Amino acid sequence: MAEEAILGYLEHNDEIKDSGEFAAERNIDHNEIVNVVKSLHGFRYVDAEDIKRETWVLTDEGKTYAAAGSPEVQLFSAIPEEEGIAKDELQKKVGATIFKIGCAQAAKNKWLDMGKPLISRKVKHVEDKVKDLLLQVQQGQSIGSGDIKALKARKLIVPQTWKGYSVKKGPNYAPKRKQVVTDLTRENFQSGEWKELEFKEYNYSAKGQPLEGGSLHPLLKVRSQLKQIFLCMGFEEMPTNNFVESSFWNFDALFQPQQHPARDSHDTFFLETPSTTKELPEDYVQRVKQVHESGGYESRGYKYDWKREEANKNLLRTHTTAVSSRMLYQLAQKPFSPKKYFSIDRVFRNEAVDRTHLAEFHQIEGLVCDRGLTLCDLIGVLHDFFSRLGMTKLKFKPAYNPYTEPSMEIFSYHEGFKKWVEVGNSGMFRPEMLQPMGLPEDVQVIAWGLSLERPTMILYGIDNIRDLFGHKVDLGLMKKNPICRLGIE
């Protein structure tokens, strides 16, 4: 109906000057007229120009007073003509809001005598000019600037921008819109209708919705950079695809006693199914049992009854050093050659979750296996490695690990915190761990490890690990943050 009205009118007239007046004259909703004009303009049936007018409309409060009268007149009408009325009774009669506003406006107009015992009228009759003005605004009539200012000050009216169009014939004008088709069908050919059809033009320059590429998680960005550092230093990556390990490779092969607190269920996730492993190298198992119980290689051992059933228990690996023990054992089965290994992968510990700890996190581990290595070699490699992370100020503190001796905690000076912070752990693998594997006596292994989460949090300014890893991570963190570039000095 709206489209027919517009095209039919333009067939005999040059212009629709105002779409609002046009809609009102034909009793058509103006929004319908606007939608049709936009569509016709898009197909160039008409040319449309915007029209904007500032109008005033009533607020909800203004609509109430336009219907029931202004508060001052409601208050005046509630006062008896002769004797007056008590303040409390009047307030109860008209309500607290009408009483408060009405008193202020009526006193301003000098309509009332606000005596202490009674409120009475000063004049006999009043006109409700506010209601009259509100009705004029509601009906679209113009009022004076002073009246507008007064109503606006009382928040009874607000400005509103009216939008419409002036409409003229376009280059493709026709009294009736032609129906364009998008598909040529078999029926069109059979009926011969295809000769009369008008097809919709294709817009070959139109672009589709942009496709977002995948975004790397901050942990993966830092991990990628660390991997490149290891590769640049000549390290070979160890396979870390076994999240499930046996207690033997995770603890026993590392010369960690079976009564160690870390092997308790409060600290380690043990599996129910399958609960044990059946694949362990028996000759190596016996050598590990011997060194735990009786010692060897200039060690006294732990002097306890080593139990095979404890070594067979399956668990979620608590550190990637379990991978290192497997790799060193495989290396010992061949003629010895020096190796440099590294790994970066997930480990699991049964810990309480807080802003700095999770039950799963990533461990970075590097090791060098060669003849004649000393503690000086370890310190030198650590300086080289951490300098590539931009950490040049290092300190080392003696520590204890079951499978390394000597052991050192690694500290770096944090320029932001203005203090020394622990960044990793390191040491030389003990002979009780290496020689049962079959490695030559003059072969030493230096190793170090650190978490992936801590440097990532520092680099990205994150103070809660749960904002970095887990279901609460903001996806915008991955899309907005640039790829991390670790400084090399």
TrEMBL record:
Example of a GO cellular component annotation carried by this entry: phenylalanine-tRNA ligase complex
Gene3D superfamilies the record matches: 1.10.10.2320, 1.10.10.2330, 3.30.1370.240, Bira Bifunctional Protein, Domain 2
Annotated keywords: Aminoacyl-tRNA synthetase, ATP-binding, Cytoplasm, Ligase, Magnesium, Metal-binding, Nucleotide-binding, Protein biosynthesis
One term of GO molecular function: tRNA binding
Coiled-coil blocks: none
Reactions it catalyzes: tRNA(Phe) + L-phenylalanine + ATP = L-phenylalanyl-tRNA(Phe) + AMP + diphosphate + H(+)
EC number of the protein: 6.1.1.20
Biological process, per Gene Ontology: phenylalanyl-tRNA aminoacylation
Ranges where the Aminoacyl-transfer RNA synthetases class-II family profile domain occurs: 221-482
Pfam families in UniProt: PheRS_DBD1, PheRS_DBD3, tRNA-synt_2d
Cofactor: Mg(2+)
UniProt cross-references to NCBIfam families, sorted A to Z: pheS, PRK04172.1
Assembly and binders: Tetramer of two alpha and two beta subunits.
Protein's name in the database: phenylalanine--tRNA ligase
Source organism of this protein record: Crotalaria pallida (Smooth rattlebox)
